[in-house]
Amino acid sequence: MGAESKIATSAQQSNVEELPENPEELRVYQSLVDQKAKEKSSEILPNAGNFHAAIVMSKLFDETTQQVNMVVGSLDGKISDKDNYMSSLENCIERDIPFKVIFLDPPILIQRLTICFE
């Protein structure tokens, strides 16, 4: 999927704490994302919230080989603090993949994410 990937997601963030979705539904969604990545699909994927967005971002980090270009809200942790997101991000950084990040809102770098970028 790499830097040329066109998979997009329509993440919606709110101030309401999100409850984990049905684990089986998340496994099905992960399979969908894996299949679309394998196909190098340019489809816009359905997105039902923060857990879905974390799955998509995790896959993008895992598959990127050249550079990560991100447009993000504030990195407030609603998506960026999910375990799969963090482990894939850390792995991407360890592979020396360069990042370019545009913040739409002032960044709220939670401690966990700050440690990852130090």
List keywords for this structure.
single chain; about 120 residues; alpha/beta; two-stranded parallel sheet; globular
Could you give a quick summary of the protein structure above?
This protein is an alpha/beta fold. The chain has helices at residues 23-38, 50-63, 83-94, 111-117, and strands at 8-9, 44-45, 68-72, 99-103.
How would you describe the overall organization of this protein?
- This protein has helices at 23-38, 50-63, 83-94, 111-117; strands at residues 8-9, 44-45, 68-72, 99-103.
- Helix 1 (23-38) links the parallel strand 1 and strand 2.
- With 118 residues, the chain is α/β, with parallel strands linked by helices.
- Helix 1 (23-38) packs parallel to helix 2 (50-63) and helix 3 (83-94) packs parallel to helix 4 (111-117).
- The longest helix is centred in the N-terminal third of the chain and has 16 residues, at 23-38.
- It contains four helices and four strands.
- It is globular, with a radius of gyration of 14 Å.
- Helix content is 42%, strand content 12%.
